[in-house]
Specification:
With about 325 residues, the chain is an alpha/beta fold. Helices cover about 30% and strands about 25% of the residues. The chain has a seven-stranded mixed sheet. It has a five-stranded parallel sheet with strand order 1-4-5-6-7, sandwiched between helices. Helix 6 links the parallel strand 11 and strand 12. Helix 1 crosses helix 8. The N and C termini lie close together (about 10 Å).
C-alpha cells in the first residue's frame, strides 16, 4: 500500500505552482493518472512528426525555474519513444527548466546490460548516456531489469519497485497461507524472496531455466516443493511469455493446484497473448507501466495502476523527502 503524503506546492511570488508534469505519447493515460493524484494538470506541449518522420516538440508554457517531471516509458515503438523523450528533455533544458527529472516506468534496452558475447553493445549504458547528455538531471525508474543499471548513470537515480501495488492486489484476491512464490530463473531469486517475506514468509521455489537464444527458453526442473499449493510466479517482465507458460505447465505437472503469475512490465510481444490464453495460468497480474488496450490482450491479464506510486515518488522528490520510505 502506497502511503500518501500531501504535495507542498512551492510557489513563485506570482503564485504559480513550481512543479509540472509533462507526458510524451508513449503512455499519456498513466501520466494523466499521476497528475490527477498530485491534483495538478499536465503541462502543455506540442509533439508532432515532420513528413520525413522527424519529431517536433515545443513546450507551450513557461517552465523557467520550474521543477519539471517527464513521464515517458521507452516501450514499443522503442526507438521512436526514446527519441521523443530525448527531444522533450532538450526542449525543457532550452526553456530554462529549473530541474528536469525523467520518470521512466519501463526502461527500454535494459536487457542489453552486459556483453554476453563478443562484439556486442551495452545499450543500457548508451541510453543512460543519451538521457544525461540531453539534459536529464534525475531519473525515476520502475523495476529495472538489473539493479546495476543505476550505476550506468552519472546523475541521481531513484529505483522504484512495483511490489507494493502488486502485493496489495495479491493479498486481496489470493488470501490464505497456501502459496509458494516461484522465481522463473535463478536471477530472480532475490525478487521472489522479497515477495515471499511480505506474504507471511511463504516458501519459495525456483525454475531451473536454460536460454539457448534470445526470446527462447528451455525450462528444465522445479527446485522446491509446489505440490498441493498455489504457485505464484514473480518476474520483472513478460515479453513473448514463453518462459512463464512453460514454467506454468511444469508447475502443474509437479502438482501445483493452481498457477498465477505477476510481473511489473507487460511487454507482450509476438505470440504472448495467445500463449497466455492457452496456458494453465489462472491470472497474470501486471502494471500499466506499458499501455495496452484491455480489449486486445489476454482475458487472463489483470492490469493494476502504478500512478499513485509514481505520483508519491514525484511528490517526495519535489519536497526533498525520502523516497525509500515508500518501501520500508
Amino acid at each position: 500500500m502506497v502511503q500518501q503524503m500531501p504535495l507542498r506546492q512551492r510557489t513563485f511570488s506570482g503564485g504559480k505552482i513550481n512543479v509540472k508534469i509533462f507526458s510524451g505519447t508513449a503512455n499519456p493515460e498513466l501520466a494523466r493518472e499521476v497528475a490527477d493524484y498530485l491534483e495538478i494538470g499536465l503541462g502543455q506541449l506540442k509533439i508532432a512528426p515532420f513528413s520525413d518522420g522527424e519529431i517536433y516538440v515545443q513546450i507551450q508554457e513557461s517552465v523557467r525555474g520550474v521543477d519539471c517531471f517527464v513521464v515517458q516509458p521507452t516501450c514499443t515503438p522503442v526507438n521512436e519513444n526514446l527519441m521523443e523523450l530525448l527531444i522533450m528533455i532538450d526542449a525543457l533544458k532550452r526553456a530554462s527548466a529549473g530541474r528536469i527529472t525523467v520518470v521512466i516506468p519501463y526502461y527500454g534496452y535494459a536487457r542489453q546490460d552486459r556483453k554476453a558475447a563478443g562484439r556486442e553493445a551495452i545499450s543500457a549504458k548508451l541510453v543512460a548516456d543519451l538521457l544525461t547528455t540531453a539534459g536529464a538531471q534525475r531519473v525515476v525508474a520502475l523495476d529495472l531489469h538489473q539493479p546495476q543499471i543505476m550505476g550506468f548513470f552519472n546523475i541521481l537515480v531513484d529505483h522504484l519497485f512495483a511490489s507494493p501495488v502488486l502485493l496489495d492486489y495479491i493479498r486481496k484476491q489470493l488470501p490464505g497461507n497456501d502459496k509458494v512464490i516461484v522465481s522463473p530463473d535463478v536471477g530472480g531469486v532475490a525478487r521472489a524472496r522479497a515477495f515471499a517475506k511480505k506474504l507471511s514468509d511463504s516458501p519459495i521455489a525456483i525454475i531451473d531455466k536454460r536460454r539457448s537464444q534470445h526470446n527462447v527458453a528451455e525450462v528444465l526442473t522445479v527446485v522446491g516443493d509446489v505440490e498441493g499449493k498455489i504457485a505464484l510466479m514473480v518476474d520483472d517482465m513478460v515479453d513473448t511469455a514463453g518462459t512463464i507458460v512453460k514454467a506454468a505447465e511444469l508447475l502443474k505437472k509437479e502438482g501445483a493446484k493452481a498457477v498465477y503469475a505477476c510481473a511489473t512490465h507487460a511487454v507482450l510481444s509476438g505470440p504472448a497473448n495467445d500463449r497466455i490464453d492457452a496456458s494453465p495460468i489462472e491470472k497474470l497480474i501486471v502494471t500499466n507501466s506499458i499501455p495496452h488496450d484491455p480489449h486486445r490482450i489476454s482475458k487472463k491479464i489483470v492490469q493494476v495502476s502504478v500512478a499513485k506510486l509514481l505520483g508519491e515518488a514525484i511528490a517526495r522528490i519535489h519536497d526533498d523527502c525520502s523516497v525509500s520510505e515508500l518501501f520500508e
